[in-house]
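#struct-help
A.M.: can someone run this one for me? Single chain, 492 residues.
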Amino acid sequence: MSSERSAARGMVRWIWPIVIVVLVGAVLRLLGLRTELWMDEILSLKLVGALESPLGVFTSIHHDNNHYLNSLWLFAVGADAQWWQMRLVAVVFGILLVPLAYWAALDWGRPAALVAALLVGLSYPMIHYSSEARGYAHVLVFALTSWIFFRNWLGTGKAGWGVAYALSASLGFLSHLGFATVFASLLVWSTFDVLSARGDRVQRLGRHAAVQLLPAITVALLYLVDVRYLEVAGGPPVTTVSSWLAAGALRVGDAPGWLAAAVALVTASAVALELIRMFRDGESEALFFAFVLFFPLANGVISIHASQRYYLTALLFALLLLARFIVKAMSGSDRRRWGVAALLIAVVGLNLVQAVRFLEIGRGKYLEAVADIAAVSAADRPTVAGNHDLGQILAIEYYERFVSGQPSFQYFCRRPGAPGCERFRQPHGADGPAPEFFVAASTRNRFAPPASLEIPNLADYSLMAVYPKYGLSGLSWAVYRSSDRTPAEPAR
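D.P.: on it. Structure tokens below:
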């Protein structure tokens, strides 16, 4: 009886820490719902808004910003839904990821499971993308559950785990096509299990083929109806080295500075050491971890537009390995124990600082900028030009409806026929007066624009106000007003 009470007390001792971690992670993700929708979210909404039926999500859009499950949700809630409603499914998946990380690492012991939940729950990139109406929170959950289900199926041979894996992997592809790196890694693990098995390999191959059939059919159908027609929007070009450095920075929440770089390097070493230890101990899933970490990095070689968000699945599994390394290192000498504890505190601290900054500033201040332009404009229809046609047109189109009086903005496109310019009249340099405002957009968090701009074929502009953004997505705006207009008071 006493042993049962002792076991019960032990369970309670572990329940409260994980409950606290899940609650803190949930609060941080829910707070992100308050931030304004940014370009990619608005673009997803616009693409879906042109559809007549949900089937068009698969057969009509053909754009890499179309993440199927997210697009279906946006179609269901409609363009007039509140921001939090558009992001509701993403935030639910983001919250769910934290207890799933605990469950995934339970095979390594409760301490490792708790540290894994802590690292995932307080990871700034995980927090950021859990409050964004796109497919990244979804794909992280299905990446983790696919690994859990496949591992359990290998270990037990029970058909239920195999069915759960097949469904999870299929939903992973419907969440985001980036799931392909996870699926490819699971196929490598699957192939290894067949080749290393003793006995009837043909029968084993049949079992593996059966569980991989549904996700394979899913990706084949997606290719036939959508992927082969896909339009890739791209982004600013990056080098392979900068892409890989950006991937490594995610472990410390993309924090700047030498301290963050040093901590990121140490965590990379810790993950590598833990992976080597898994190979040395003959753990077959080490092969999966090696490939799930490597495959996303290949994108930095193949593509010149390798964004940090393409490395999120690799980050997730790197954090699991880091948790395992930390807990094992804690059993060493006092000096080692203190060093590992300092590493854990540094990783969590750097991520929390970035998360707080993001929640404070958000993905941009587009509504405030649009309202300020409307308030000081000398015309009934404010005229605007900028250096990022698509992003600025999407934001102005979306946010002008919230401005008192609903002024109809006129946007002067940089080039005729640019995406999103269909409803605006004139390109830069066309006959007629120059636009009253010019918006300079930047992806940088620390954006210090010049006090004035001279735009060829337009006019000279003076800085009116800066509208910042912080973090892994969003745009900072610097709003300029034509110098030949009557000076207006700065918006702030």
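A.M.: thanks! The mean pLDDT is 88.
D.P.: also worth noting: Residues 366-482 form one domain.
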